[in-house]
Write a structure and sequence with these properties.
By secondary structure, the chain is α/β, with parallel strands linked by helices. Helices cover 44% and strands 16% of the residues. A six-stranded mixed β-sheet has the order 3-4-5-2-1-6. Helix 5 runs antiparallel to helix 6, helix 6 crosses helix 9 and helix 15 packs antiparallel against helix 16. The longest helix has 25 residues.
């Protein structure tokens, strides 16, 4: 790793800008005395017990810089596991910069993620918990925060440790059978060991099955609004955001490039995209916008195809290269058909059966009503979106995998365990099964950081903000 663990490090831990207070962190051996060099009550600070707050002034020579509160943390009872001091000063960017410049005379500026890296190296957090720190900071919705906090509390780590213990015990059974094969000992109980391995197999499959949904909480769920020009994509985009983010005019083709915004849908993070209308054109700019739309549709988690009563007169085609299972079709502007509220499913089906549109849409998988004008006009759309992304209620003890790296490690573990199970069913050599079980455990060790590489650690901690 590029971090020098013997240095005293410091950084501003709060966001830039004007605020009531700002926090400056200092960590490392003699961190308290380092701050005391610039404190008007140095002895009071150096004598302070852990978790004690000391009031005073930061000095530049004899000149007071700011009135502050310093909190002392004694090793190993701190975030990093080292001696630490946190300076709470006024949130004036000039003041925080002056204090930081003073501290940098006796320590160096922390790299992004270095405080959390030290917590990992000092066994205050494992690697999965360290990643959860960054997830919690960047979480955009309540559900995302719950998932990150669950991982930070160690729920995933405990589940991984439990699986590792079970697989290690099975591996030891096979290794003992190898070492004492020539002695008069009871034979290995193949059925019992196989049963234990199958139970672990089921646990791994459950974790992986929840991983797709868990990824939504960490990375968000991408919904692409698409359809012909002037069907109301931008109006619906604005209604979801509750602001006039996209231009809306009666002129078809107003949106030529795509717009993208985040929103919280009952606590779930959704990345909503408003795209250029799909139609035949010779306009080079519109052609580029349509190509971009088609690319977004292929990458999105869900594609919402919008139409309206007028565009149904034209031939309506579902997009190519987009799986039908990630498409929802909606007829927008149903207020133009005389509806003053959303019809029920049976009312809508009856209406379509009797309407002139029936022959135009009979091949669609589903066509639900919506309106950017009616008060309840997006209720059905929101309901169907939530059905796609909703998870069971997260409990404080819930185990949910949200990280792509963790999912890859779990899959690697499952693949190795499948080989071990196949060997067990075929009564293969003990050493081959033990080798596969070692591979399975090694894959899980990558999640908690028991086995890591410098490149992996660099990649993880470099994504953190400075000061965390």
């Amino acid at each position: 790793m590029r971090f020098a663990l013997n240095d005293i490090i410091t950084a501003i831990a709060t966001p830039p800008g004007i605020s009531a207070i700002a926090v400056i962190r200092v960590s490392g051996n003699n961190a308290v005395s380092t701050v005391a060099n610039f404190f008007d009550r140095p002895q009071k600070l150096t004598d302070a017990a852990g978790y004690q707050a000391v009031h005073g002034y930061i000095l530049d020579g004899t000149e007071p810089v700011d009135e502050v509160i310093c909190i002392v943390y004694r090793s190993p009872h701190s975030y990093t596991g080292e001696e630490m001091t946190e300076i709470f000063c006024h949130g004036n960017p000039d003041l925080t910069a002056r204090i930081l410049q003073l501290l940098l005379k006796n320590c160096r500026l922390a790299e992004p993620g270095e405080f959390t890296f030290r917590a990992f190296m000092n066994h205050k957090l494992d690697l999965a918990q360290a990643e959860a720190v960054n997830d919690l900071i960047s979480a955009q919705t309540g559900k995302s925060e719950q998932a990150a906090l669950s991982q930070l509390r160690g729920n995933l780590s405990r589940e991984i440790d439990s699986i590792v213990k079970e697989l290690t015990d099975c591996r030891i059974r096979f290794e003992l059978a190898i070492d004492f094969a020539d002695q008069d000992l009871p034979e290995l109980d193949w059925d019992e060991v196989q049963s234990r391995m199958e139970k672990v197999h089921n646990r791994l499959e459950e974790l992986l099955a929840g991983g797709k949904q868990g990824r939504i909480l960490r990375d968000g769920y991408t919904v692409c609004l698409s359809g012909a020009p002037n069907v109301g994509k931008s109006s619906i985009f604005n209604r979801f955001l509750q602001e006039n983010r996209a231009l809306v005019t009666p002129v078809p083709g107003t949106t030529r490039d795509y717009l993208e915004e985040w929103l919280s849908l009952e606590g779930y993070p959704v990345r909503l995209q408003d795209t250029a209308g799909l139609h035949s054109t010779n306009d080079e700019v519109e052609i580029l916008g349509i190509r971009r739309t088609q690319e977004l549709m292929q990458k999105a988690d869900l594609v919402v195809i919008l139409t309206d009563p007028d565009s149904l007169e034209e031939q309506f085609l579902l997009p190519e290269n987009v799986p039908s299972d990630k498409i929802l079709c909606f007829m927008n502007k149903i207020d133009l058909l005389g509806f003053d509220k959303l019809p029920s499913a049976s009312e809508w089906k009856k209406f379509l059966a009797a309407s002139r549109f029936h022959s135009k849409i009979k091949n669609l998988v589903q066509l639900a009503p919506c309106s950017a004008v009616l008060a309840d006009g997006l209720d059905t759309l929101k309901k169907l979106l939530l059905e796609r992304i909703s998870l069971p209620n997260l409990q404080p003890s819930s185990v949910l995998v949200t990280n792509t790296r963790h999912l890859a490690a779990l899959q690697k573990c499952l693949d190795a365990l499948n080989k071990a199970l196949e060997g067990t069913k075929n009564r293969a050599g003990y050493e081959f099964i033990a080798f596969d079980l070692i591979a399975a455990v090694s894959a899980l060790a990558e999640i908690t950081g028991a086995i890591t590489t410098d490149d992996l650690l660099d990649n993880i901690f470099s994504s953190f903000c400075i000061g965390k």
